[in-house]
Design a protein that fits this description.
- The chain is mainly beta.
- It has a single domain, classed as TolB, C-terminal domain (Neuraminidase, 6 Propeller), CATH 2.120.10.
- It contains 2 helices and 25 strands.
- The strands form 5 sheets. The protein has an 8-stranded mixed β-sheet with strand order 19-20-21-22-1-25-24-23, with no helix packed on it.
């Protein structure tokens, strides 16, 4: 097993931005986008951020709601965003927001959109119960072929890391979906029939129930034979972790640690300075002032070395004509 340490890549300038960073994603050839889901414990809005590693600068764009995900699109400066209970397009040049349809889950109180993934057939994303208590949050497919939202499940607590393998663009095309509902502490695999809008029964492929922390964001390894998972640790520990697991047997293949920042939220592989490196977002959500004083790197973005020599696919969202 490989063990890597990481260094702070970027320390967000405000406590609001450090509360709950997630979703790092390649933006163009040399930048990184990420979302600050919530600008503080009582805030009902967050932001999209674009970080330039070479310059060490970050540009933030405030939203009117809390974004669970934001992916670059084929229109420069425009992101597809899931915020609150809507999915739509946000234009960073104008601040304009246009959603695809009305609110999802209109009869369910206390849920908002959380993590998602973009693929050729559309989007797969889910919601979370803000109280992290009830199995009432939905898992959704936005199908590109007819621009429809389809509820795949209605019984998740806190949807998180997702990976789709396959395009889902042909008639009857099936794709593989890996999914995390955080409190279950498992990674499950489904077959997703995009045309029918249905899921197979879940199969556990990585069992994390013996861990004391919680799986959050997840990405595929470049060869698609493994996954890298960020672990959110609510306990008062010295460092956080992200781990690489084999999909063949669930074994741990690599570990990355984040010093003085135990709540790791999302991973992303990037090409930085000619090497494939791992970026991790972390959060200071829920920390007392005393804990914040000890965990001085909470809410920072970290970067660490890897053994990889290529990147997994990170598609942009193609805006429908």
């Amino acid at each position: 097993m490989s063990v890597f340490s990481t260094n702070v890549l970027y320390r967000p300038e405000t406590l609001q931005q450090r509360f709950l960073p997630e979703g790092p994603y390649p933006y163009g050839s040399n930048k990184l986008s990420w979302v600050a889901i919530q600008h503080g414990a009582d805030a009902t809005h967050g932001s999209i951020n674009i970080f330039d590693p070479a310059a060490g600068t970050n540009e933030g764009f405030e939203l009117t709601g809390r974004p669970g995900f934001a992916f670059p699109t084929d229109m420069p400066g425009t992101f597809v965003v899931g915020q609150e209970k809507q999915v739509g397009l946000f234009d960073t040049s104008t601040g304009g927001w246009s959603h695809f349809q009305g609110d999802l889950e209109p009869g369910v109180d206390g849920t908002v959109i959380n993590d998602g993934v973009v693929f050729s057939g559309g989007l797969v994303f889910g919601c979370k119960d803000l109280n992290f208590a009830e199995s009432k949050a939905g898992l959704y497919l936005w199908r590109r072929s007819d621009r429809q939202f389809i509820q795949l499940r209605n019984d998740q607590v806190c949807t998180n890391g997702k990976i789709v393998t396959g395009t889902g663009t042909g008639t009857g095309d099936q794709v593989t979906l890996l999914d995390i509902d955080t409190p279950t502490k498992t990674v499950v695999r489904y077959t997703l029939d995009v045309a029918a809008g249905t899921l197979s029964e879940p199969e556990i492929v990585v069992d994390l129930r013996e861990r004391t922390d919680f799986p959050d964001g997840m990405i595929a390894t470049p060869d698609a034979q493994g996954v890298i998972i960020a672990f959110y640790n609510p306990n008062d520990v010295e460092f956080g972790e992200a781990c690489q697991f084999s999909l063949a047997d669930g074994s741990v293949q690599a570990t990355w640690t984040t010093a003085r920042s135990p709540r790791v939220t999302c991973p992303q592989l990037v090409d930085f300075n000619g090497r494939i490196q791992l970026v991790l977002t972390t959060a200071d959500e829920g920390m007392t002032p005393e804990q914040q004083a000890r965990h001085v790197n909470a809410g920072c973005l970290f970067i660490g070395e890897t053994d990889f020599d290529s990147l997994p696919e990170t598609p942009v969202f193609e805006i429908p004509a």
